[in-house]
Design goal:
Elements: E1 2-4, E2 9-11, E3 14-17, H1 31-35, H2 41-57, E4 62-64, H3 72-83, E5 91-96, E6 98-100, E7 112-114, H4 118-132, E8 136-144, H5 154-165, E9 169-174, H6 179-189, E10 194-198, H7 207-215, E11 219-223, H8 238-246, H9 251-260, E12 267-270, H10 275-282, H11 291-297, H12 304-312
Parallel strand pairs: 3-4, 3-12, 4-5, 5-8, 8-9, 9-10, 10-11, 11-12
Antiparallel strand pairs: 1-2, 6-7
């Protein structure tokens, strides 16, 4: 176990994120193959618990959820109670800002709605605490951007400072081609203990800013390490697939190994939806990332605008 920056939260190098397990539709490629047709609440709850059981058995120390991940907080809370897991055994982070509005429908016109207001913060914090109680270790702004106004909202910042004074670490997650600007704004605010950002072999633009955040004492959580399925077996670019075959590992494990190897990465999230996927992802920890891999896979990097435009075109399936 390691400490996540100045937050002193105890984490392992890899964690589990429940974005793809708390709702029937999400933007991960290959979801129909991974989940099948049964996306009922009962089926998704059972699948979520199976993955959490596998994560616990593997020694994973960090679990990441959000109010907008459908019933993810509810599933996690039920699992914690059923397994008799005491507060503090796992580091658990959640997020506020998006509300799930998909009504458990695959064909919903909208699945989530964003609002980074103080009212949304207070309302969703109450909902999160009602489910997770003392298990909540970290509370994060969901998908902050430099131009969202959240860094200038004194009501929001005061609420976050109060929560932090009460013992809950404060973080933010970032999104879009301007992640670096958002991270630098967060450093100026001097409120945050952690930052969660997208970094993968296709989208590397936040790397220097994450290094600055790490140097300033913030814990860094990396999401979307397999680029919503674009760096897994069925969709892996030729260069990644070839490098994985040569090393007798899976593309997803190699892609995540690239993230684990970054000196500023505190926790790298797996978004697995099955125990088998989780174990495949966790193999990343045993892969040595070397200069040869760095050189041969450097060409995979896309322009940030291109990457986020492609991500925005992924369908909720």
């Amino acid at each position: 176990m390691n400490e996540l920056g100045r937050s002193a939260l105890r984490v392992t190098s890899m964690g589990i994120g429940l974005a793809a397990l708390g709702r029937p539709a999400y933007i991960t490629l290959g979801r129909a193959q991974d989940l099948g047709e049964d996306r009922s609440v009962a089926a998704m709850r059972a699948r979520c618990w199976q993955v959490l059981d596998a994560a616990l058995a593997a020694g994973i120390g960090y679990v990441d959820v959000a109010r907008s991940y459908g019933r993810a907080e509810e599933f996690l809370a039920g699992w914690l109670r059923e397994r008799g897991i005491a507060p503090g055994t796992l580091t658990i982070g959640s997020k506020w800002g998006y509300a799930y509005v998909g009504d458990w429908r695959m064909d919903a016109e909208r699945h989530e709605v964003k609002e980074l207001s103080a009212g949304r913060l207070r309302g969703q914090l109450g909902q999160t605490r009602a489910l997770l109680g003392e298990h909540l270790s970290l509370y994060q702004i969901h998908s902050a951007t430099a131009d969202s106004g959240v860094f200038d909202d004194e009501d929001v910042l005061a609420c976050l400072r109060e929560l932090r004074a009460g013992g809950v670490a404060i973080g933010l997650s970032t999104t879009g081609p301007g992640q670096a600007d958002t991270i630098d704004r967060a450093l100026e605010a001097d409120v945050f203990d952690t930052v969660q950002a997208t970094w993968n072999l296709l989208e590397r633009s936040a790397g220097p800013a994450l290094a600055r955040a790490h140097a300033a004492g913030l814990g860094v959580i990396v999401k979307e390490g397999v680029a919503n399925g674009r760096l897994t077996a069925d969709a892996a670019p030729r260069e990644l697939a070839r490098a994985a075959r040569e090393r007798a590992v899976t593309p997803d494990a190699l892609a995540l190994a690239a993230v684990v190897a970054r000196p500023w990465a505190g926790v790298v999230l797996s978004g697995a939806v099955s125990a088998a996927q989780l174990h495949s992802n966790l193999a990343a920890a045993g892969i040595t990332w070397d200069a040869e891999l760095e050189e041969c896979l450097a060409a995979l990097a896309e322009d940030p605008e291109t990457y986020w435009a492609r991500r925005g075109c992924l369908t909720w399936g």
